[in-house]
TrEMBL record:
It comes from Sinorhizobium americanum. InterPro entries: Glyas_Bleomycin-R_OHBP_Dase (IPR029068), Glyas_Fos-R_dOase_dom (IPR004360), VOC_core (IPR037523). Keywords: Dioxygenase, Lyase, Oxidoreductase. Residues 4-128 form the VOC domain. GO terms for molecular function: dioxygenase activity; lyase activity. This is Catechol 2,3-dioxygenase-like lactoylglutathione lyase family enzyme. It holds the Pfam family Glyoxalase.
């Protein structure tokens, strides 16, 4: 089954830490890194092998962006990282020390587990039902 999602933007207070987490610690593939002015950068990454997954990281600068981060950290933000091999990617993330808030469970729409990043955002790692 092929699953495609729109690009999801997250704001991080420390751009280098965001890249270190997603590309370094989790081993995501860096697809695009572009300066967009005013010291901001948009970075497109995806888990290796999960060709239909996209996550966009923006460097946060200023009070408005920091407020946006604060608004996201209060609870589930409903972002998904789709994977073509849930067992592989879940194991790799566990090995990297990722904190999972909910262990894998089977739902009608697929297998899902919830994890958190160092910035307080919560994500669902999901393999859609075939």
């Amino acid at each position: 089954m092929t699953q495609t999602i729109a690009r999801v933007a997250i704001l991080v207070p420390d751009y280098d830490a965001g890249i270190a987490f997603y590309c370094g610690r989790l081993g995501f593939e860096l697809i695009q890194d572009t300066a967009v002015g005013d010291g901001k950068r948009w970075v497109l990454v995806r888990p290796r092998g999960a060709t239909e997954t996209a996550l966009l990281i923006a460097r946060a600068e200023g009070d408005r962006q920091n407020a946006a981060i604060g608004n996201q950290t209060g609870g589930r933000v409903g972002f998904f990282l789709f994977t073509d091999d849930f067992a592989r990617d879940h194991a790799a993330m566990l090995a990297a020390g990722v904190e999972f808030l909910e262990m894998p469970r089977h739902e009608a729409y697929g297998t899902v587990a919830v994890f958190t990043d160092p910035f307080g955002n919560r994500w669902d790692l999901l393999q859609p039902a075939s």
